[in-house]
Design a protein that fits this description.
Layout (H helix, E strand, L loop, with lengths): L1 H18 L3 E7 L8 E8 L16 H13 L1 E8 L1 H7 L1 H15 L6 E5 L11 E4 L7 H22 L7 H4 L5 H10 L12 H4 L1
C-alpha cells in the first residue's frame, strides 16, 4: 500500500512537471526586404491570452496587427532580437535571421523549457531545447504571436526611417523590392540602410 502511494506521488510529480512546461514561440520578419535589420520575436504566452485571436501576421490587416501587438504585449512575456544590415552583409540573411532569433530567446526574462521556431532551421543555442516547425506561424499560437510582435516592431522602425528618406516609399513598401522602390533607387541612389549584397541592389553599386 505504501509503495502504491509512492508511485502515485511520482506520477503526480511527472504530470505537474509536464503541465508547468514553459513554451516559447519564435519568428522573424524582414528577410526579403532590401533595407534595414532583420527582426525576431520570442514570446511566452500567459494563461490570460485568447489564443483564438492569434494568427500569422501576414494574414492580418495593418490595423488588426497593431491592435493585437498591444494585446499580446499585455498578455505575454516577450523579447525582440535584431541583426543589423552590416551583420546581414557579413554572414548572409539566413544566419543573420538565426542570430536575431538567438538574441530574442536569450533576452526573455524567463528561460523556456521548450522553444518552437518557425521554419526549418535552428539557431545555435546551447542549453536550450529547440525545435523547428514548418509553417509554425500558421499552427502554433505563440509563434503566431511572435510573428505579429516582430512584424509590427520592424514596421514601426521602418516607418520612422521613411521620414528621413521620403523618396523611397518605405512607409508603404517596408523596403521590399516594389517597382516604386526600385525606380527610386535608380533615381536617388543607395542609402546606408540598403542591403548592398542583395539583388538588385548589388548591380546598382
Amino acid at each position: 500500500m505504501g509503495r502504491l502511494k509512492n508511485d502515485q506521488k511520482k506520477n503526480i510529480r511527472i504530470k505537474s512537471k509536464y503541465l508547468m512546461k514553459i513554451l516559447a514561440g519564435v519568428d522573424e520578419v524582414g528577410r526579403g526586404s532590401l533595407i534595414g535589420p532583420v527582426y525576431a520575436a520570442a514570446i511566452i504566452l500567459k494563461k490570460t491570452i485568447n489564443k483564438k485571436l492569434l494568427k500569422d501576421s501576414k494574414s492580418l490587416s495593418k490595423n488588426k496587427r497593431e491592435k493585437l501587438f498591444i494585446y499580446i504585449k499585455k498578455h505575454s512575456i516577450w523579447a525582440i532580437g535584431k541583426a543589423s544590415v552590416q551583420e546581414i552583409e557579413k554572414i548572409n540573411i539566413l544566419h543573420a535571421s538565426l542570430l536575431a532569433m538567438e538574441r530574442a530567446i536569450i533576452k526573455l526574462k524567463i528561460k523556456p523549457s521548450l522553444v518552437l521556431i518557425d521554419g526549418n532551421k535552428l539557431p545555435n543555442l546551447k542549453n536550450y531545447n529547440l525545435k523547428f516547425v514548418v509553417k509554425g506561424d500558421q499552427k502554433i499560437p505563440s509563434i503566431s504571436a511572435a510573428s505579429i510582435i516582430a512584424k509590427v516592431s520592424r514596421d514601426k522602425f521602418i516607418t520612422t526611417l521613411s521620414k528621413k528618406f521620403q523618396n523611397y516609399g518605405w512607409s508603404t513598401n517596408a523596403g521590399y523590392g516594389t517597382k516604386e522602390h526600385l525606380i527610386a533607387i535608380k533615381k536617388y541612389g543607395i542609402t546606408k540602410y540598403h542591403r548592398k549584397t542583395f539583388y538588385p541592389i548589388s548591380k546598382f553599386k
